[in-house]
Write a structure and sequence with these properties.
The chain is of the alpha/beta class. It has 19 helices and 23 strands.
């Protein structure tokens, strides 16, 4: 029997940005049934005392990579304890469908997720059925085989499209007209089945320094795929542009904006720099974004309010490769511990490693040994809890690369170091939180299990920006996390505390919640019958998290219930358009 709820005595923040107000909220049959003061309890209705608490819509995780992890971590821990009720996946051009008939080509998808998102190859190979070729078939398999604690939605990835049609040649060339037609047919299959739209990537290079397949797409291909989006009302485009590596983001953003202009396809891209090292791109990017807003363009600035703190390991990480250091990435790619240690001890490798270290991207904190903390030792040899610069002074090793190699040799390849986060521009972040044309909470949750844990970052927005520093109001923060996100994705049935909306609801005391420290959970299959770790967090905790009217987090713990649904965008409606325009 579906439990009915009466949430009494709380303060409602409804997700629209409107002022908070005191009210009771009644939940029946998975929907918000009544809102008012002093509502009387009904028979067989659980009364939740929300005195001192806020009652808000459930939070959107707007940029996740649970495409693989959902198959072996169906709890999506720790998201229920952080008020998340909707997870957006298939981002960055990375999706698990469509897929090619040839297993060797499908391995490319697995390798992409493994390298870019630190999602284990063994788990993806052994625990996912791969009983699909089209996106619609993947969706059917997921619905059949996986229970969901959150509502789940996904893009169709441009990289997967190219690999499914072109095979291994997708890495190397533009598509023929016939291949573009096939891609459009596969994208239409995905949109008809409920995909959010198309995600693509104009930034990344793989572990062999090859541009990802989507970077090989020419204007013909782009215009054809955008035409498909335009023929499907409610579909959106998600785009990763390069404001981080080669820093061509403004140029790339302008190119895509020109191609989406005829249809004004709703688009999200990380056009506005928020980290201090990205400052040289700021003026051009801000001018572009303002022009798009002035022209009424449906282009949203994608951003995250946190710069991730990276935990560097020596088994599986993209940190060295993404910072322009292919020689140190050789250690990561070495297949065994013996092979890794042999490289670290080899004088010729050491010579190449020093040269590569000095040529890393200038914004890399690997250049600053005081920004690298020696966090955990496998052997216990140590030292730990000190910076690499302190170890260099103690050991007498003069070059940072040599010092790190020496420390890993002493402490083992399962040891970890903590890299300092990049400084962020909080003034610009506050502006984006308030900007009607922004999309936030880009946490990367579900990915980078050994690098960082993005899950729960939404709560940091509420504590740091609202409660502690008072940089924005609670209403502004909740609107960003709920109503504005729902409007962007055209989920017109949720994202607000309003009668008739789906009961994705969170109850929390702002003084109780925190983004808890990272902890290791040894629950990821290693492909050999054992388990490896990922970073997660203890619950914030929320008092109550409801997904479609069913509690997923209650009385301080995950409930073991899986009421999430595979949700799809509604065709654009006046209410969604009005909320997006604010």
């Amino acid at each position: 029997m579906l439990v009915q709820y009466l949430i009494k005595g709380g303060t409602v923040v409804d997700g629209t940005g409107a002022p908070a107000y005191k009210a009771d909220v009644r939940i029946r049959e998975g929907q918000i049934a009544e809102i008012g003061l002093n509502l009387a309890p009904a028979q067989r209705e659980r009364v939740v005392d929300a005195t001192g608490c806020y009652v808000t819509p459930g939070f959107f995780e707007n940029h996740n990579h649970w495409d693989g992890g959902i198959w072996w971590t169906p709890t999506m821990d720790p998201l229920p304890g952080y008020g998340a009720t909707t997870s957006i996946n298939g981002n960055c051009g990375f999706s698990v469908a469509p897929a090619h008939d040839d297993p060797k080509v499908r391995e490319q998808i697995i390798g992409i997720f493994n390298f870019f998102e630190d999602i284990p190859e063994e788990a993806m190979t052994q625990l996912m059925p791969w009983d699909w070729r089209k996106w619609s078939e993947m969706q059917a398999s997921l619905k059949k085989n996986v229970k969901l604690p959150l509502n789940y939605a996904s893009y169709c990835g441009h990289i997967a499209l190219r690999l499914a049609v072109m095979g291994l040649e997708a890495w190397d060339r533009t598509a023929t007209d016939a291949e573009i037609t096939q891609m459009c047919d596969l994208l239409q299959d995905a949109l008809s089945a409920g995909a959010l739209g198309l995600s693509s990537n104009l930034m990344d290079h793989d572990k062999h320094d090859r541009p990802v397949p989507s970077k090989q797409a020419d204007e013909r291909e782009w215009r054809a795929l955008i035409d498909v989006l335009a023929r499907n009302p409610g579909s959106t485009l998600q785009l990763i542009i390069d404001t981080f590596l080669q820093r061509k983001g403004p140029e790339q953003g302008a190119w895509i904006a020109e191609m989406t202009k005829p249809h004004n396809v709703r688009t999200q891209m990380g056009i506005i720099p928020t980290l201090m090292f990205q400052e040289p791109q700021r003026l051009e990017a801000e001018a572009l974004f303002q022009q798009w807003k002035d022209d009424g363009r449906e282009i949203y600035a994608l951003f995250h309010h946190l710069s991730p703190t990276s935990m560097i390991n020596f088994v599986r990480t993209l940190a060295f490769a993404q910072n322009g250091n292919p020689v140190w990435h050789e250690v990561i790619e070495a297949p065994t511990e013996e092979a890794k240690l042999a490289l670290l001890a080899d004088p010729q490798w050491r010579d190449r490693a020093r040269e590569a270290w000095d040529k890393q991207y200038p914004h890399s904190y690997f250049h600053d040994p005081s920004a690298l903390t020696l966090r955990e030792s496998e052997t216990g040899y140590g030292p730990v809890g000190v910076t690499l610069s302190e170890f260099m002074a103690e050991s007498g090793v003069n070059h940072t690369s040599d010092a790190l190699a020496e420390w890993v040799l002493r402490n083992g390849t399962l040891s970890t170091i903590l890299k300092k986060s990049w400084e962020r521009n909080e003034e610009r972040l506050v502006g984006l939180i308030r900007d009607a044309k922004s999309l936030g909470n880009v946490s990367d949750s579900g990915a980078h299990g050994k690098l960082f844990c993005g899950a729960g970052d939404a709560v940091y927005l509420l504590t740091h920006f609202v409660r502690d520093e008072k940089l924005v109001t609670l209403e502004e923060a909740i609107h960003l996390l709920t109503g504005r996100s729902a409007a962007f994705f055209n989920f017109d049935d949720r994202g607000q505390i309003k009668v008739g909306k789906r009961a994705d609801v969170v109850v929390f005391n702002l003084e109780e919640i925190e983004r808890r420290p990272e902890v290791k959970a040894w629950d990821v299959p290693d492909g050999e019958g054992g388990r490896t770790y990922r970073y997660t967090r203890e619950a914030a905790p929320m008092r109550l998290t409801l997904v479609n009217g069913v509690a997923t987090f209650d009385h301080g713990a995950f409930t073991g219930r899986f009421p999430g649904e595979f949700i799809r965008p509604c065709p654009e409606t006046p209410s969604a358009r009005a909320l997006a325009a604010e």
